[in-house]
Amino acid sequence: MDKFKYYCLIISGAFSEVFLVEDRTHAGTLQAVKCIDRKGLLGKEDSLENEIRVLQRLDHPNIVKLLDVFEDKSHVYLVMELVTGGELFDRIVEKGSYTEKDASDLIRQILEAVDYMHDRGVVHRDLKPENLLYHSPDEDSKIMISDFGLSKTEESGTMATACGTPGYVAPEVLAQLPYGKEVDCWSIGVIAYILLCGYPPFYDENDSVLFQQILKAEYEFDSPYWDDISESAKEFIRNLMCKDAKKRFTCKSAIAFPWISGNTALDKDIHASVSENIKKNFAKTKWKQAFNATAVIRQMKKLAMNKEDHSQSPHRPTASASLHT
Predict the structure, then answer these.
(1) Where does the record place the region Disordered (predicted)?
(2) Does the annotation mark 126 as catalytic?
(3) CA 23 vs CA 26, 30, 71: distances in Å
(4) Domains along the chain?
(5) From the candidates 126, 140, 267, 309, which is the catalytic residue?
């Protein structure tokens, strides 16, 4: 791993660490290297191989890229595109204003990336806000899909494993029925719902009750939170969060819907209500990760200043790796 100059630890997990690095062969290009301890891979080798295989077949502007893979006797190293803009909910809370049109644009980017995946036979199986990251701190930054640890290729066989995150998982998964890429479309519907009100469509402290709500597709557009949301947005969500997977919107049909491709998304500012509900319902539990993301940005600025001080070097650091373990 002499190819890289290591700067700082981004995230530390039980069996993996992510470091901010600079590629010595391309001065100024910052990336992230995920170092995975082989001890933590015992019995899970197939899962990592699957994640690598999936990422190697994907190349889309809204999907975090796997740039290279190395290994030695003790570790496997994944070189990833650097993503420094933070998580979806954090950015919404920090915004000065936020509208349906903003939510529509976010969902459009997610749909286009997932449609690209589905066309290539890849099902993510764990789409949720925590896996949606902004590429950079810039106001107009694009959104990126990360964490393909549970993803699956359709040619690997029928999917029936109950996996994903409670609250975002589709009814057919909980019913332990064979399922396909439709499960991702359901999850996008759940994300769209949250983006417009700040709370989840399904919730209960008791998982059994929560799962029953999902199995029955029981959700409401509660007043007053949904009073100022367009009927088009609600219809869009109903078509994605449809209990019958065969009748559920595909990514392509969702992209073609007027709330995404037309002009039915409203311009009314809903920031106050949505951000307040996000803060209540999605309490920040990743202070260490948030701190380390800040450390990365600080390191990038320091490197940029050093480059300016040494004017003989024409290179500037360029953000190019997911901050997630």
Answers:
(1) 305-325
(2) yes
(3) 5, 7, 17
(4) 4-83+286-319 (3.30.200.20), 88-281 (1.10.510.10)
(5) 126
